[in-house]
């Protein structure tokens, strides 16, 4: 028996047609129109005849969709309808004609949201424009809304200054500038300077004001503030010096008896080797003289840190053993994080 090329192709198609499979229609993942397009594409691939299309679509649309179709056509059976009638019936149910004005309003109200890339924003606009009936004005409408809704004022300004701006050119320029901005932010983050702040204190007993008790007057001191900026790595082991004993630790960790008396100045609380009376500080870049220490008026240094991707402003205190946030800050930014118990007890150094 001789086999012609035509017969071979037909036999191959008949064999493939038996494995014709497509997932059931799911309105939560795709639209009815797009599912029908995929089904019709399969019809062309497998050379499905017109009289078989009705049975294929009724089979592959799924049980829930078939029930909806049967209810819409009742008392007529779905199998008695043509392929086109079945498609149109479900099209009216799943994709009713939207209101053009409402769709345009939704399109023009769309702005770029936080964390959304230029490409994602443009895709969202193109999706919203489907039912706006812009026609030949479609690309210009998407271009205009793309420019108007950008978060970056720098990119927006560049696009507004560009002559003969098309949608393709706007996407090219905006995407390029977006990548550049991200690279610059990463470089700036890596090159952030570390600030080291040291304080030299000198007790002053001559500034006691009348009407103040002895304990209040004792809290007032003269001090020199030395601010030194390091652009290299900050090594805590070599830059921390206890002003009580000179050891490589913070003063609040010092085990020296606080009642010990300096043999140089006669003041209690530190040793002679760290006494400021015998030493002259030479590496001071900026000195601020304050005659009376006050927690209300003294200059404070702060730094912004990232906690759980949220920016929090902290006051710098090199003598503090812990980093704390207020109860108000916790309730505002981290209320979803559960608090844990601790045996740690905190005491104010000033009291």
UniProtKB/TrEMBL annotation:
A GO molecular function held by the record: zinc ion binding
Protein name (record): CCHC-type domain-containing protein
């Amino acid at each position: 028996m001789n086999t012609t090329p035509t017969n071979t192709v037909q036999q191959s198609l008949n064999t493939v047609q038996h494995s014709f499979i497509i997932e059931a229609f799911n309105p939560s993942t795709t639209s009815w129109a797009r599912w029908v397009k995929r089904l019709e594409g399969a019809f062309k691939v497998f050379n499905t005849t017109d009289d078989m299309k009705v049975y294929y679509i009724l089979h592959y649309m799924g049980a829930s969709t078939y029930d909806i179709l049967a209810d819409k056509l009742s008392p007529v059976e779905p199998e008695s309808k043509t392929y086109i009638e079945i498609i149109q019936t479900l099209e009216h149910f799943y994709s009713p004609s939207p209101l053009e004005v409402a769709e345009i309003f939704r399109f023009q109200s769309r702005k770029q949201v936080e964390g959304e890339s230029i490409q994602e924003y443009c895709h969202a606009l193109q999706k919203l424009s489907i039912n706006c009936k812009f026609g030949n004005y479609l690309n210009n409408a998407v271009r205009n809304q793309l420019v108007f809704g950008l978060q970056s004022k720098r990119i927006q300004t560049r696009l507004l200054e560009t002559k003969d701006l098309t949608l393709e050119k706007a996407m090219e320029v905006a995407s390029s500038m977006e990548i550049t901005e991200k690279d610059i932010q990463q470089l700036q983050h890596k090159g952030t300077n570390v600030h080291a702040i040291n304080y030299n204190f000198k007790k002053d007993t001559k500034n006691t004001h009348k009407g103040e008790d002895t304990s209040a007057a004792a809290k007032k001191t003269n001090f020199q503030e030395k601010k030194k900026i390091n652009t290299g790595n900050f090594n805590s082991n070599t830059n921390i010096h206890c002003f009580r004993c000179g050891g490589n630790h913070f003063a609040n960790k010092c085990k020296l008896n606080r009642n010990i008396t300096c043999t140089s100045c006669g003041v209690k609380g530190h040793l002679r080797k760290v006494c400021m009376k015998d030493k002259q500080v030479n590496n001071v870049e900026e000195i601020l003289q304050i005659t009376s220490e006050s927690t209300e008026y003294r200059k404070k240094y702060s730094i912004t840190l990232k906690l759980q991707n949220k920016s929090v402003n902290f006051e710098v205190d090199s003598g503090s053993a812990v980093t704390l946030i207020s109860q108000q800050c916790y309730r505002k930014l981290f209320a979803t994080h559960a608090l844990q118990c601790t045996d740690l007890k905190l005491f104010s150094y000033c009291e």
